[in-house]
Amino acid sequence: MFTERQIEELNKSFEKATPSEIIQKAFQLNDNAVVTTNFRPYEAAILHAVSKVEAKIPVVWCDTGYNTPQTYKHAEQVIKDLNLNVFLYVPKQTSAHRDVVMGIPTVDAPEHALFTEQVKLEPFKRAMNEHKPNVWFTNLRQGQTAFRNSIGIFSLSKDGVLKVSPFYYWSDEKLDTYLKEHNLPNEFKYFDPTKALENRECGLHA
C-alpha cells in the first residue's frame, strides 16, 4: 500500500523520465502487474512500451461489444504484432440483446448508469478481481479530462492499486513520432458508447 507522500515523491522524481524508465521503476516497486487497454487511438504505444519490459504481462481488454470494425481489426493486428498475452472480458449480456431491451441510452437518460455498469464497469471489476494486480499500467494522459489533469504519472486507484501512466505528459504529436519510430499502427475510428464527449470521464478512473 502506498501513501500519498510516496506518490508525490514518485511523481516528482519521474516527471522527466522516459516511459521505459517509469515502467521499469513500477516493476521494481511490485511486479504483480497488468496493463489495460480498449484499443482506442494511441493504445499501441503503451502496449508496446510495457511488453518490451515484460513480454508476458497480462493485457486486460474490456470490450464493450460496441467497437467499430476498424477497432477490432486494429486490435487483432496489435495483438499479433506484439504477441500480447491478452485476457478478454466482455459484458454478460450481448450487445444484440441489450439493443432490444435498452439500446444505447444518452448520458442524461436514467438508464445510462446501468448501461455503463453493464458494458464497462462490471467487466473491468471482474478482470481486476481475477488478476488482483498491485500495479496497473494505463495510457491516461494530461489534458484528456479534468480528473486526469490532477493525477500525475503515478496515482492510486479507488482500491489502492498503483496506477502508472508512462505517457502522461506526452502530446499526440509526440506519440505519433513514437508510433512511427517503432512501426506501430494507430486507428482513430473508435467508439465509446458510455461517453457523449471525448473529455468526459468513463467511470473506471475517477
UniProtKB/TrEMBL annotation:
Single GO biological process annotation from the record: sulfate assimilation, phosphoadenylyl sulfate reduction by phosphoadenylyl-sulfate reductase (thioredoxin)
Record's keyword terms, sorted: Oxidoreductase
The family this protein is said to belong to: Belongs to the PAPS reductase family. CysH subfamily.
Domain Phosphoadenosine phosphosulphate reductase span(s) in chain numbering: 34-185
EC assignment: 1.8.4.8
Organism (species): Jejuia pallidilutea
PANTHER family reported for this sequence: PHOSPHOADENOSINE PHOSPHOSULFATE REDUCTASE
Taxonomic lineage of the native organism: Bacteria, Pseudomonadati, Bacteroidota, Flavobacteriia, Flavobacteriales
Recorded GO MF terms: phosphoadenylyl-sulfate reductase (thioredoxin) activity
GO cellular component: cytoplasm
Protein name stated in the entry: Phosphoadenylyl-sulfate reductase
Gene3D superfamilies noted in UniProt: HUPs
Database matches in Pfam families: PAPS_reduct (PF01507)
This protein's pathway: Sulfur metabolism; hydrogen sulfide biosynthesis; sulfite from sulfate
